Structures are given as C-alpha cells and as structure tokens.
Amino acid sequence: MLDISTQIGTLKLKNPIMPASGTFSEDLADVFDLDVIGAHVTKTVTREKRSGNPTPRVCEVRGSMLNSIGIPSKGVEAFKKDVIPFYSRYNAPLIVSISAGSADEFASLCEEISVPGVAAVEVNISCPNIKDDGKAFAMRPSTTHAVMRKLRDSTDLPLWAKLTPNTGETTEVAKAAEEAGADALVVSNTLLAMAIDIKTRRPKLGNLMGGLSGPAFKPIALRMAYQCAKSVDIPVIGCGGISTIEDVIEYLIAGAAAVQIGTATFIEPKIMARMVVDLAVYLETQGLSSVRQLVGCVDDKGASDGLVFMEAAP
Amino acid sequence: MKSIALDTAPGTGYANPIHEVECIIRSNDTVNGEYRLLVLNAPLELLDCEPGQFFHLLCPVSGTFKPYLRRPMSIYGYYPDRGELHFLYKVTGEGTSAIATLTTGDTLNVLGPLGRGFDILPNWQNLLLVARGVGLATLAPLALKSRRLNRKLTAICSARSRKLLLSLDYFNDLGVRVIAVTDEDGTSSVESMRSIIEGLIAEDPIDAMYTCGSNRILKLLQSVAATHRIPGQIALEQQMACGIGMCQCCVRAFHRDGGIVNERVCKEGPVFHLQEAVGC
After folding, report:
1. A58 — contact with chain B (CB < 8 Å)?
2. Burial class, B100, CB count within 10 angstroms (exposed 0-12 / middle 13-18 / buried 19+)
3. How far apart are CA B84 and CA A220, in angstroms?
4. Which residue of A lies nearest to B115 if distances are taken between CA atoms?
5. Angle at which helices B215-228 and B190-203 pack, to 10 degrees?
6. Where are the beta strands (DSSP E) in chain A?
7. Could you tell me if B150 lies within 8 Å of chain A, comparing CB atoms?
8. Phi and psi (nearest 5°) for B81?
9. Has residue B213 got a pLDDT over 90?
10. Distance (Å, rounded) from C-alpha B93 to C-alpha B67?
11. Which residues in chain B have their CB less than 8 angstroms from residue A43's CB?
C-alpha cells in the first residue's frame, strides 16, 4: 500500500505537496479541486490593511521572475471573516502566514489568528523588523530567536518559521528558530535581486529591488533546505524554484519532509495536483512504499560539518 | 464563471470555470504592417466568454525567444459556431515575438477565459466605443455582442495613419458606424475627437461609452461622460504573473468613495468603471 502522507510535527498531511505563501488563494479553486493537495497556505496577512508596493511589482528574468508585491493585506479582521471560513469546506489543513514589524506585534497577531479552522501558523520572518533596524528577523540568529520565543508564547498551534536566503548564517538561524520553539522550518523565501531596463535605465521593479523565485533560484534554496535539515531535528519544508516532479524528489532526498510550490503555479496552475499524482507514480516505479523512505536519503558520503555548513562557495 | 452582463444568459456552470487547454493553431498571419491575427481551434468551454475578457498564453520557448511568465491577451473574437478563438496582437517584446513564430498545426497552451468583461446593460441602447491602435482589438468583440443584442454602436477608431487603422472592415460588416481619425489627417487630437463626440451626442444621446488603453482618450471620455452623465467602461492593462487573482502583481489605483483603492486588473478587471480609472 503506497503511503504518500507526511508528518510535519503533530500535523499529518495526506501528501507533501502544498502551495508557497503568496502564490495561492481562493481564486485557484476556479481551476482545480483544492482538496487534492496536502495543505493550504495563505498569502501573508498583517494586522492592519496594507496596500503593498508601487507597480511594476513583477518582472521576468531568464527562466525566472522577480517580485516586489510588498504584502498587500486586507487586515486580520477581514481575513478572519472571509478567508478562514472559505477554507473550512476542505479537509486539507489551513496554514495561515502572518507578518508584523516587531516581535510584540507578531505575537499579538499570532494570538489573534489562532482560531478554529487554522491548523498551523507560518511566520514570515523574512520581512523587515521595523522596530529595530529594518533588517529581516530571519537574517540573524538573535532576532530570529527573539521573535520566535514571543510567538511560541502566543499560541498553541504549530509554528512554521519561514526563513530567508538573504543571510550568511543559514544554519545558525535555523537552530535559533528550533531552539525558540518552532515546529517546522520553511526554507526558503525569495532571494533579494534586481533587474534594470537598459533602454530607460530604470529598475524594472517599482520598488527598486525584489525577490527572485523560479527555477534559477532552486539550487540555492535546495542547498539551504539540505543545510537546515542537517542542522535541526524539526521538519524542513522545502520551497524555492520547484517546477518539476524531479525537483520535488530532489528536495525530499535533501531532507525536506514536504515541499511548497510557488512560481510554477503561475505557469501551470494545476501543477500541484499533477505533482501529487506524479509523486505516487515515481514512488511506485522506484519500488518505494512511502515518502518517508525518500526524506533525507541523500548520499553525501558522510560529509564533514565543515563542508555541509559552508556559507561561501569553495 | 460569474455571468457579468446582466442581459446575458447565465453561464453553463462549469465546476472549474477556468480552463487550461492546448489549442491547435488554425492560422497566425500578418494583418497589416504591424499586427497579426492568431486563430486557434478552441473547445466550447473556452468560448463561453465575454467581450473584454482575456486569456493567459503560455508562449513557446525557442532558441531565440525564452519568455517565462504567461502573457495576458484580450480576446479579439470568439466564435462558438466555428470553434474559433481569435487574438489580434502587435509584436512588441519577447512574448509576442515568440507567439509570432507559431504556424498552422502548432499548439499553444491557453488559460481562461479570465477576468471581468464589458457590460451592456438593458437600457444601454446607443453605444460609443473610442479606441486607438491595438486597443481596438480589445473592443472589437463588443461590436459582435452589441449586434447580437441589437444595439446601435458607433466606433471612433484612431491611429497614426490610415494604413494602420485596424478592424474597419470588421466593424463595417457588423453594421457599426465607423468614424476613422488619424494623426496624418490631423483628426485624432483630443479637441477634434471631443467635437465629434459632442456632435454624436447632440444627434442621438449616447447611453454608454467604452474604451481601453490610451490615457489621452481616457481623460477625454471621463470629461465628456461627466458633463453628460453618461456611464462608461474601460479595459486596462498591467504587468501580470498569475492572471487569476493570486499574486497581487497587477494592481492599479482607482478612485472610489472619495479615496484611492487598489484592484487587481486580472480579477476585478480588466474592465473597470470609466470614472474610477486613474490616468497615468
């Protein structure tokens, strides 16, 4: 009997395929039955209404894209009234992504959003810590630890910390999040990037810079997911550039217990549903009986910590 | 899909109203110096659409052109009886360059129909559309629908030169009254168009106005429509990623309730109220 379920802490997912925050919404229900995927992850919500960044908010680069959406949000009240009830029609667990500008605001929003219908909270700590110095919480272990500790005290729901690739301290940040009570790590958010129109000499994004996502980013996020899985005991959810079933398998082998699909949904809206089927087919053709048999099976020949946790190219 | 126009029969109630389909290309030919007409074989579920809606096209990747994201393109024509979906486009960048390489028998992956189309309310009997350049491609299916609904339609078509005027035959064949204006004839200025429209209104009051694209025409129509209290609609563009409302990339600002609100061009639009649109 083929078992494609996966376990993220106390939460059992019927399969390891879920959307990345910001690339999924109720609108996708117009394209396929959202109950076929392992979980639903909402776009990041903030306490207050936010309008987001100036346009253009998106541009494409070779084989990938940059975005600077800027977390437009209808605010937590509208979210609780409209979004959470929408997902109650599905069996797939609802993961709510939240963001705030300080550790205290994060904690109070987390408390407010810990309501029936929400299975876990994904904390987008890749956004700037406005109260301190504007650097994203997850860029440093100390700020990661501080915000995760406050979040841990604010809810009984599982907490997934979404990390950033914009750091030179990937494993230290991962360990800080685990130590402060995170139940899982989502690795990772987008990589800060830029594109300039050579005719107008203007940046292609209205907000000057933005996050790289798509296939070009995959090897970087995969490296981070591998490093995180090696350094913590909590589950890692791989996220970054996945666009084929082979990419999913690669993340699982690297140590991810589940994966998030983002940009690829923009190109192929039904890709998550297809990947659920393709994953089962892959396992069967490989003579495997469960996803668990794949997770973390990378043959890295027992590489030394010095190699595994390297943060600069050799 | 929500049935947008009040006088349209309710949709057939597809469970998942947005379809992703590999369509076979019937033809993809140059129309005049600058434009091309793409004709696809399309199943009926794709053709349950409204003027003003769009499809999100997965452009082919070749050695020369490597577009990544889908490209939104407004519907130029939809013909359930012939199983055809038409797009009229101008080659401007990597996406349209890639589409221009497609030939008869090739396939193109399309997603749609998407967005909110134009309304033709029951009491909108005398209609005016004003458009410039390729903007006419978006407005052309309105002519088809207004004829089906037996409405009177006047089209003011603007272009740089007479040879670049699009769709004149298309409009004439549908019994549309066409007024062509061009830069080369000096008839396309805002003031010239204003007096043409004022003349039309004096002759027979206009019930609704439609436009798309041009900022200059938007401002002109907003002014004339406000003076005469005529409702209007405009189709707008914005860079898009997902095309179905998820990513929030394609927002634009609109005047509403004394303030400014952001709305998604792909989902709440691409057709918006004329007076709410903010010129850029």
Report:
1. yes
2. middle
3. 44
4. A27
5. 30
6. 6-8, 11-13, 17-19, 40-41, 58-61, 64-67, 94-98, 120-124, 159-162, 184-187, 191-193, 196-197, 202-203, 210-213, 236-239, 256-261
7. no
8. -65, -35
9. no
10. 9
11. 246, 248
Confirm whether A36 is domain-assigned: yes
ipTM of the complex: 0.94
What residues in A contact B242, CB-CB < 8 Å? 23, 265-266, 269
Domain B118-212 has CATH 3.40.50.80: yes
Token pair for B75: 């519907």
How big, in percent rounded to 5, are the helix, strand and coil portions of chain A?
Answer: 35, 20, 45
| DSSP, res A53 | P
A33 interfaces chain B, CB cutoff of 8 Å: yes
Q: Helices A170-179 and A218-231, interaxial angle, to 10°?
A: 50
A204 vs B: CB within 8 A = no
Q: Domain limits of chain B?
A: 19-114, 118-212
Q: What pLDDT score does B15 carry? A: 53
Q: Which of B66, B244, B247 sits opposite A30 (nearest CB)?
A: B244
Q: Tally the residues of chain B.
A: 280
Determine the distance in angstroms separating the CA of B70 from the nearest CA of chain A, rounded to an integer. Answer: 6
B contact residues 57-96, partner A, Cβ 8 Å cutoff: 58, 66-70
**CB pairs A-B closer than 8 Å:** 97
The beta strands (E) that lie in A17-105 are given as 17-19, 40-41, 58-61, 64-67, 94-98
Flag whether A224 is in a domain: yes
Fold of the domain spanning B19-114: Elongation Factor Tu (Ef-tu); domain 3 (2.40.30)
Task: Kindly state whether residue A27 falls inside one of the protein's structural domains.
Answer: yes
- What number of CA atoms fall less than 13 Å from residue A161's CA on the CB side? 37
Nearest CA in chain B to A61: B68
Would the pLDDT of B126 be above 50?
yes
DSSP class of residue A279 equals H
Query: Could you give the percent of chain A with pLDDT greater than 90?
Result: 93
| Structural domain range at position A113 | 6-308
Written as one string, the DSSP assignment of A194-229 is: --EETTTTEESSTTS-EEEESGGGHHHHHHHHHHHH
Write down the residue that tokens 């009240």 correspond to.
A77
User: By CB neighbour count within 10 A (0-12 exposed, 13-18 middle, 19+ buried), where does B71 fall?
Assistant: buried
Interface test with B, best of A57, A62, A213 (most B CBs within 10 A): A57
Residue A102, domain member (yes or no): yes
pTM score, two decimals?
0.94
CA distance A56 to chain B (A): 7
Model confidence band, residue A128 (pLDDT cutoffs 50, 70, 90): confident
CB B219 within 8 A of CB B279: yes
